[in-house]
């Protein structure tokens, strides 16, 4: 059971977490009663819930554990944004129909965007718009070729957070609380929870449009990346359910200050990146989460940190309500 796996993993680093699960996002601690939760009417509302790494609507199958508040809040929000993003991408690539917005010098117009017979059509109807704006736009905007078209759901800023949310949970699923204690994880957590506009979190996106031969790129996988033949870093991979993009690789710093420094100094500055990706079997997580000495840096951080320095608060049991 996931609760037992993560509870024992947390206990390896600090005995005060014995019998507790710490949500990887909000860092609140729950005892095993959190699996039962509160009774609301005829339904039981557990404090804990399964969280998909990648939206189930897009083919995501793997899950990890988080608190219900985080899953129903940011989890649902970020999953919806990714679903909308890919729906918009599919439309642009020639499949489906989406609502759109045309920004013109005389005002915005509601429209639809659709591919037909190898060409795209943009239709703005009088019934959905101000008739005066429509007449003026027909006389100026379309005649002069001026105007900006925005397709509903095509918002990379929000989709980026959806990918980072999935990558963060994937790293937690593989490495447990060892990962959450890294500076890179703390920066990602701050971005996801507190400040979606923050730019200080270290990460790098690489889009793979095709892969020759048998691919090492596996959907919903975590692995290591050798960049430009030398730099090793972590990565999470999600395959894109579209025609043009094969997969999205989210690169994250390796463990320890030295790997984090090299990631920021080298990888974030590189415009062209050649990388070799090696996925790690998920079975390995079952071994590593039980091994207190697998990553010495995290083990040392937990044992040597004062309460003020620790990334986690003192346990506050929530399972009993």
Structure, described:
There is one protein chain. The protein has 321 residues and is of the alpha+beta class. The strands form five sheets. Strands 11-14-13-12-15 form a five-stranded antiparallel beta sheet. Strands 9-8-7-10 form a four-stranded antiparallel beta sheet. A two-stranded antiparallel ribbon has the order 1-2. It contains ten helices and 15 strands. Helix 5 (156-175) crosses helix 7 (183-193).
Oligomeric form: single chain
Biggest sheet, open or closed, and with what strands and sense? 5 strands, antiparallel
Whole-Å distance between the termini?
21 Å
Beta strand %: 25-35%
Strand order of the largest sheet: 11-14-13-12-15
Outline type: globular
Give the total of beta strands.
Answer: 15
What's the gyration radius in Å?
Answer: 23 Å
Low-confidence stretches: 299-310, 316-321
Alpha-beta classification = alpha+beta
**Helical content (DSSP H or I, runs of 4+):** 25-40%
What are the defining features of this structure?
321 residues; single chain; alpha+beta; 10 helices; 34% helix
């Amino acid at each position: 059971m996931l609760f037992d796996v993560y509870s024992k993993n947390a206990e390896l680093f600090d005995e005060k977490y014995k019998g507790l699960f710490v949500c990887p996002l909000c860092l609140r601690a729950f005892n095993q009663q959190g699996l039962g939760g509160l009774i609301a009417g005829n339904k039981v509302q557990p404090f804990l819930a399964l969280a998909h790494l990648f939206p189930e609507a897009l083919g995501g199958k793997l899950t990890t554990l988080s608190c219900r508040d985080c899953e129903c809040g940011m989890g649902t929000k970020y999953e919806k944004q990714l679903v909308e993003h890919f729906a918009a991408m599919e439309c642009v690539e020639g499949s489906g129909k989406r609502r759109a917005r045309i920004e013109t010098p005389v005002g915005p117009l509601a429209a639809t965007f659709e591919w037909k017979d190898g060409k795209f059509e943009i239709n703005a109807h009088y019934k959905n718009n101000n008739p005066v704006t429509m007449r003026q736009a027909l006389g100026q905007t379309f005649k002069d070729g001026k105007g900006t078209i925005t397709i509903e759901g095509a918002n990379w800023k929000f989709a980026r957070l959806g990918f980072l949310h999935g990558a963060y949970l994937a790293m937690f699923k593989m490495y447990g609380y060892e990962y959450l204690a890294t500076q890179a994880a703390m920066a990602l957590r701050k971005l996801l929870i507190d400040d979606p506009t923050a730019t200080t979190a270290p990460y790098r996106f690489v889009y793979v449009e095709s892969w020759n031969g048998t691919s090492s790129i596996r959907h919903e996988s975590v692995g290591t990346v050798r960049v430009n033949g030398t730099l090793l870093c972590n990565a999470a991979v999600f395959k894109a359910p579209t025609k043009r993009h094969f997969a999205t690789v989210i690169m994250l710093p390796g463990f320890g200050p030295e790997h984090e420094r090299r990631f920021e100094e080298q990888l974030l500055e590189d415009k062209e990146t050649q990388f070799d990706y090696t996925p790690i079997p998920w079975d390995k997580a079952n071994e590593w989460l039980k091994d207190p000495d697998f990553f010495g840096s995290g083990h040392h951080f937990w044992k040597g940190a004062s309460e003020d320095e620790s990334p986690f608060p003192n346990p506050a049991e929530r399972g009993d309500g």
